[in-house]
Amino acid sequence: MVDAPESDAQLEDAVAAWRGWCRALEETGAAVLGQALTTDEIDYAEGLRYLGRAAHFVLFGRTENRDSGHPYFWPYLGPHVKIGGDNPQGLYLSAPINPTDTFVIRGTRGSARWFSAVVMRGPGARAAGEPPIGAELYLPDLAVEPDGTFELVVAPDPQPGNWLASDPWADYVLVRQFFPTPDDVDGMDVTIENVTIGHTVPEPLTLAEMVRAYNQAAAGYRASVPHLHSELVAKADALNSFKTDIGDPTSSGGVPGGNAVTGRWALELDEALIIRVTPPVPCAYWDVQVGNGWYETFDYRHHVSGLTCEGAHLADDGSVTLVLSSQDPGTVNWLAAAQHREGHIAIRWQLTSGRLPVPETTVVSVGEVQSLTGLPAASPADRAATRAQLRHSFDARFRRW
Q: pLDDT confidence of 252, banded at 50, 70, 90?
């Protein structure tokens, strides 16, 4: 039985951790809401929701599914947790790992148009001057058996076949699946096993590790939530353009294996942003996504908030013309602004070489779009069919998760 003095100290530690987390929520949230891109009701409403989603993301990321001895895959991002411009065509799964053990990921190929598995590093990597992402494996290099199954080993030492090297900062493995079109969604049936110590019984949870987790979550919330939003705030002098610093096209960051051009748009409800760009060659995969001022994609169960290289209509010369607006312009390649007046837009280019293209943009009235672009028409029946496909895609991706 724990004696009273020790019990009192443990209570104080638990209460201090909880209060520290609550202070981080209150102080950070109030400051971030004060920097909303507009004073529109919808942006304040979504800002409140965003703060709650971010709290879920940060806290659960530190307190749940952290036992790397007995890991499992769970949703990293999804319809209820949107961070940093998530892909509306994507399924993100993660599982904890560690630097020393051997992990085996087993799965089926599925219909993903783009796949990546990356070793994500813990906070110690930054302190050591290392990037946040370690080893990476992309779809072109994934060896798959004739029956569509595969195995991928995550371990510090080289392994035959599919292998991701863990390192001293290895914290979790992140699997991305981006699907080609809403009517072609067959997710991987994927599992992970720690073959070194997975047969053991998990140790009981300790107060020390939970206090540490809450302190890390509080620090992470204070740092990450303002940082992501500040990227859009900083683009106030470059509205409706892609004023983005473009570095090495194979750099890491939010788009392993590629890079993204991003922009901040500002449109009245009767205006449209026409975007023209020629995708780079080579380019293993590209997609475009739009979302609100909190760097969240719009509700992709009901709005076309993204298109992929297979879902978009391309011109004969290989270029693509996209249209962003709240009102339906009556053409293909429409990205819905969902009754917002400001937000973000991003285009991913994967496995490219050379300098990345920066899109050209023009603001016009919605009624001018069809004549100015020459894009094929899309009828109300076409829109209804698209919305049905979006619902199907949503259900197919997330029904297991």
A: very low
